[in-house]
UniProtKB/TrEMBL annotation:
Organism the protein comes from: Hyphomicrobium denitrificans (strain ATCC 51888 / DSM 1869 / NCIMB 11706 / TK 0415)
InterPro entries attached to this UniProt entry: CobW/HypB/UreG_nucleotide-bd, P-loop_NTPase, UreG
Record function comment: Facilitates the functional incorporation of the urease nickel metallocenter. This process requires GTP hydrolysis, probably effectuated by UreG.
Compartments it resides in: Cytoplasm
NCBIfam families xref list: ureG
Family statement: Belongs to the SIMIBI class G3E GTPase family. UreG subfamily.
Subunit structure as annotated in this protein's UniProt entry: Homodimer. UreD, UreF and UreG form a complex that acts as a GTP-hydrolysis-dependent molecular chaperone, activating the urease apoprotein by helping to assemble the nickel containing metallocenter of UreC. The UreE protein probably delivers the nickel.
MF annotations from Gene Ontology: GTP binding; GTPase activity; nickel cation binding
Residue positions binding GTP: 24-31
Gene (UniProt): ureG
Protein name: Urease accessory protein UreG
Length: 215
């Protein structure tokens, strides 16, 4: 994490919940990752709230509310009405307001996960909105994705490569993907997950515990 991000994180923690972005292409498994992280944070006694972003619906928020994993009132929906990155980067006002509202309703909240709508590889989060962010790609999108050097993949605090269970079915060499993604990120961290079989989820949760919540 760079110095300004660290500073922003320290400032934010002093006045409220830490805010963590989850971005990535359509269908890479952002909502599935949140559904796995909710119980992982419950086991770690972290008070959680969630903001989802969709284009013109509240589809992802309703899916999480229906899951029974979290109090539905702790899930807020933002309808972007535009390219998803506009409301997480250019003008994050709607998302900041949604997170502020959750904090006002639930003063004990320690961590707010903000899921972007599915976007392209150039999608990034404003540090006015989040303190730390993940970018989720999936194995089925192709093992050439890390070689494309998209800003989302390069700049995020943690790259998550999901759907490892599909690797044998789509001819992806996970070791090669690991080497190329690590090189593209200059050695910064990445995690492999399989949300279907809950693999790698605890590693992601533990990283957030130490890097974001300092616990
Ligand atoms: N095989 C497999 N399927 C997965 C995994 N994670 C998610 N999926 C499936 O991939 C599809 C998309 O997952 P979502 O969690 O909806 O993806 P998303 O990134 O939130 O999608 P958008 O919000 O539309 O951008 C669903 O059918 C999931 O069940 C995984 O690790 N393995």
């Amino acid at each position: 994490m760079n110095v300004s991000a660290q500073h922003s994180l320290t400032e934010k923690l002093r006045i409220g919940a830490a805010r963590v972005g989850i971005g990535g292409p359509v269908g890479s498994g952002k909502t599935a990752l949140i559904e796995r992280l909710i119980p992982a944070f419950a086991r770690r006694n972290v008070s959680l709230a969630i903001v989802t972003n969709d284009l013109v619906t509240a589809e992802d928020a309703n899916r999480i509310r229906r899951s029974g994993l979290i109090d539905p009132k702790r899930v807020a929906a933002v309808e972007a009405g535009a390219c998803p990155h506009t409301v997480i980067r250019e003008d994050p006002t709607l998302n900041i307001a949604a997170a502020d509202d959750l904090e006002a309703q639930f003063p004990d909240v320690e961590l707010i996960l903000i899921e972007s709508g599915g976007d392209n590889l150039a999608s990034t989060f404003s540090l006015d909105l989040v303190d730390w962010w993940m970018f989720v790609i999936d194995v089925a999108g192709g093992d050439d994705i890390p070689r494309k050097n998209g800003p989302g993949l390069i700049k995020c605090d943690l790259l998550v490569i999901n759907k490892t269970d599909l690797a044998p079915h789509v001819g992806v060499d996970l070791e090669l993907m690991n080497r190329e993604a690590t090189a593209a990120r200059g050695g910064r961290p990445l995690a492999f997950t399989n949300c279907r079989q809950q693999e790698g989820i605890d590693d992601v949760a533990d990283r957030l515990m130490s890097e974001v919540l300092f616990r």
